[in-house]
Amino acid sequence: GIPGALVASLGASITRGIEIVMKANNVESSIDEADLILTGEGKYDNTTNHGKLVYYVQQLAKKYKKPTVVICGAKQEDMVIMPDNQDNNIYDLLSLFDEKTAMSRVVDCLHHLIQVHCHKFPVLRDIQQN
């Protein structure tokens, strides 16, 4: 296609859009400076590890040895977790709430989810105490 022609004829390079966006927003340096990485996804499923933003955030967090929490609306139960993501903590609202509650009372549900899981992360414990 056109990208291949540009590479061959003009010496252009092909870069994923996510890489451009993350670089333009200094995501890597922000992750490097953070104590905890908190990211989200509507549904965490087998497509997540194939180019979605949350996957790239997880990879950078791993590179800088930062604890990572993924909060999602739903999580595919039979999902194959990629070996390089096995240390990430993935929490979904639908494990605690029915869909109607999770969709209509998002802030309350997130607050409860954090209360339930904050003991696992010292940074979240500090936030809870304040």
What does this entry look like structurally?
This protein has 130 residues and is of the alpha/beta class. The chain contains seven helices and three strands; from the N terminus they run H-H-H-E-H-E-E-H-H-H. A three-stranded parallel β-sheet has the order 1-2-3. It is globular.
List the helices and strands and how they pair.
Layout: H1 2-10, H2 17-24, H3 27-33, E1 37-44, H4 53-63, E2 68-75, E3 89-92, H5 99-104, H6 106-117, H7 122-129
Parallel strand pairs: 1-2, 2-3
Strand residue percentage = 15-25%
- Give a short account of the largest sheet: 3 strands, parallel
pLDDT below 50 for ≥5 consecutive residues: which ranges?
A: none
- The radius of gyration over CA amounts to 18 Å
Question: Total strand count, please?
Answer: 3
Class inferred from helices and paired strands? alpha/beta
Task: Tell me the series of helices and strands, N- to C-terminal.
Answer: HHHEHEEHHH
The number of helical runs is 7
Lateral strand order in the biggest sheet = 1-2-3
Roughly how much helix do the residues carry, as a percent range?
A: 40-55%
Distance between the termini: 55 Å
Task: Give a short synopsis of this structure.
With 130 residues, the protein is of the alpha/beta class. The chain has 7 helices and 3 strands. The protein has helices at 2-10, 17-24, 27-33, 53-63, 99-104, 106-117, 122-129, and strands spanning 37-44, 68-75, 89-92.
